[in-house]
Amino acid sequence: MSEPTPNRTAETKTKLKRRRSDLPFFLVMSGISSCFILLIVLLLAADLMFTSFEDFRAAVMKPEIQSAFRLTILSCTIAALLSIWVATPLGYLLSRYRFPGRLLIDTIVDIPIVLPPLVLGLSLLILFHLPIGGWELEAWLRDDIGFPVTYRWPAVILAQFSVSCAFAVRTMRVTFDQINPRAEDVARTLGCTRGQAFLQIALPQSWRGMIAATTIAWARALGEFGPILVFAGATRMRTEVLSTTVFLELSIGQLNAAVAVSLLMVVMAVVVLVVLRVLGTGLTS
Amino acid sequence: MIEFQNVCIRAGDFQLNDVSFEVGSGEYAVLMGRTGRGKTTILESLCGLRRVQSGKIMIRGMDVTHWSPADREIGYVPQDLALFPTFSVAEHLQFALRLRRFHTTQIEHRVSELAEMLGITHLLKRQIEGLSGGESQRVALGRALSFRPTVLLLDEPLSALDAETREEIQTLLRTLTDNTGVTTLHITHNAAEATALADRRFHIVDGQVIEKSESQTQEAEELDSPTG
Q1: Among the four residues A26, A180, B76, B191, which has the most C-beta atoms within 10 Å?
Q2: What is the pLDDT of residues A229-238, one digit of tens each?
Q3: DSSP A141-188
Q4: Which residue of B78, B95, B99 is in closest CB contact with A182?
Q5: Among partner residues A183, A191, A193, which is closest to B96 by beta-carbon distance?
């Protein structure tokens, strides 16, 4: 008599295994993921339900808020452009070269990311007002150059730039890490200097990353609040950006206006994200 | 033409010591040796992408040891080809000529001549995305030969190709190098390739470059192969 039992058991096991579904995998993964998505959607929905169109219109019509809106758009755009201007060469150097002090520079770039925002603002304030042998940066800029910074609009941009540039550098570094350096090597054997290889070979490949870095820098600048409050103040019509507006409206009990401005910021962020993403796919396709 | 004089190179965790060899003008030399023995390192130091610790590298009788890659006038085809993702096929062939500020008509003439020689005229307007292995190889060869270098370096140019394409490219390589008179150094670990192409055969053994005859190459291949 043969003993088919072990074989048959193996067959049944195989069949059972094959019948196992992927459904639990998708249920668990999407279940966990949806918690976060749901949280954000609920936040926005609550904001929308709290405010009415009239509140929104009234808030948007206020001259203070219109002025804050203009300053926000302008300062975020300048901060983002400055960030990408600095982040591209710095990201490239960090990605391509091993030089003494590279680790230190890498760490310094991350400091604005990990530093509490208020501390960053305070540090900026101290830097501009620290007397060094009778010389002070802010006094020099104000008296000799005629360009005072603290508690004026340049302070807003500098505060935004300090943080958003760090994020842009991170993005650009990853971008260049993902671009094959061999192409630049070959370009150099074909007659390129390192500069030409960067400009003609690496840079055209980094478009997508540059757009992502600009987007991130812009979005970070939009959300900046702590350093602006400390370094630029919250003077209505002068250094007020939308994030400060929310704080100011909230502090005088105008909850409706605060929520309306918050929604305005959400719309701005979404528009910028979508425009840059479309631009990104358009350029790379 | 190409001369290594007692060159020492450190690369990662291995070291090449006292490497000396010479390839004459217009010769087709094949450099063999197992993976990780420093074949690519030798090519990289020859075209200036890797610094040498000591010794001299001479090309056309000139000491180029400390020259930048751009000044050495060497055509280089790396193993991964490293084509430029944002360039069209034609732009690959034009690139080195543009850098040398050739006149537009000269560039056009050279590109069509090269494309015909390589059989890629119908691909000139294409982007490199979607090119087959053989087509990419031809573009990389064209890019390396575009500025009429006197030295051509090929890093395992046939290893990623199917048998039929390999044969095609092999014939193309022989025709190209015969027609242009370019001095060629070709890396491979395939003895058949060496037999088909080489005027001279070099092997890397224990960090040294040694010249071997055809029969010695085959013996070495048998010893190196896992079944041998």
Answers
A1: B76
A2: 999 998 888 8
A3: IIIIIS---TTSHHHHHHHHHHHHHHHHHHHHHHHHHTS-HHHHHHHH
A4: B78
A5: A191
